[in-house]
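P.,

For your records, the input lines for the assembly:
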Amino acid sequence: MIRLYDFERSGNCHKVRMMLSMLGIEYERIEIDLAKRDQLQDWFVALNPLHKVPVLDDDGLLLRDSAAILVYLVRKHGKTAWYPDNAPAAAEIQQWLSLSVNEVFNGLASARAIVVFNRDLDYATAVDIAHTALDTMEARLKQHDWLALGRFTIADLACYPYAALVHEGNVDLASYPAVRAWIKRVEDLPGYVPMPGLPYPGD
Amino acid sequence: MIRLYDFERSGNCHKVRMMLSMLGIEYERIEIDLAKRDQLQDWFVALNPLHKVPVLDDDGLLLRDSAAILVYLVRKHGKTAWYPDNAPAAAEIQQWLSLSVNEVFNGLASARAIVVFNRDLDYATAVDIAHTALDTMEARLKQHDWLALGRFTIADLACYPYAALVHEGNVDLASYPAVRAWIKRVEDLPGYVPMPGLPYPGD
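Structure tokens returned:
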């Protein structure tokens, strides 16, 4: 049985909930309320020394990173279309996983965390990184429907939640029409699940 | 022919130079001097909108992220021992690739960039993130010789340079004996290449 340590308003958790829904996998959900600092309790830090959600527990195999969890679920369930293992495809996908972990998280997610959760970070710096992430996505999506390949892959899921939640961080997508069209494409996928703030309320 | 857009003092570039050396691959090296802001020239931004090194050009296939380049090279050259594609192993490795892209880069690498390259970032924040990264690595390496699996993988290469260059950012590894022992293990690998500041001068 899969157990997901989960916070409803976390975009990183949303990626995993979405993948579990797309794969039709039942799971036990354990709420870690970041607002109450549940993630700093000793028992949770023992599960994840980075004290972040999500954490996935698949019969004792513990995984603590949303990109790693996407890789795990897709490979375990043989969905190679969503994460092929040939060299160029795997590398293209890894580029976007890295963007999701660095620029998307430290830009788009941080701007939102400052506004929504009063995180003690510099807003101007976060917005600056957010636009670097959005510029990179817009440049790709002007020419292509999906981020990494000619079809949906885990690259899209990794970058989607914080791009679509950016309105909660007061970052405007007006100058990113290709990103907005891609957001709608992700939201039309079979198995899509909403969360507070999603689907994207614009357009 | 492989072309590497490279900066000698970049730890992210070192990972790629090291992998190319371990695979015995010849390549053409193009110096992008970050100190002279070469990375902001239009022709380079066209190669990588994130204006970062390394960038790998393999007969027209452009890759812009060091983790993605490691994935690409290992898969292309069939070194599955360094990056297996079964679900748990791929996920374990992805966890450390994500750590290398976020906490290692924004902590260990940023502390060094502030000291060495006068980067306009907050030193206390960088050092704080650096210790999060080192704590996570130390916890794993206390029990295991390598980060992701029971042997060397690209996870180790992804995390090595900025961990071992940390002395240039005035971060002390005195309380991280397992990290220091692992650094020596990486430096003893066949094909290891030095760079300014590496191998780690302590111990």
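Two observations worth noting. Chain B has seven helices and four strands. Helices of chain B lie at 11-23, 42-47, 66-76, 87-117, 123-141, 154-164, 177-187.

Regards
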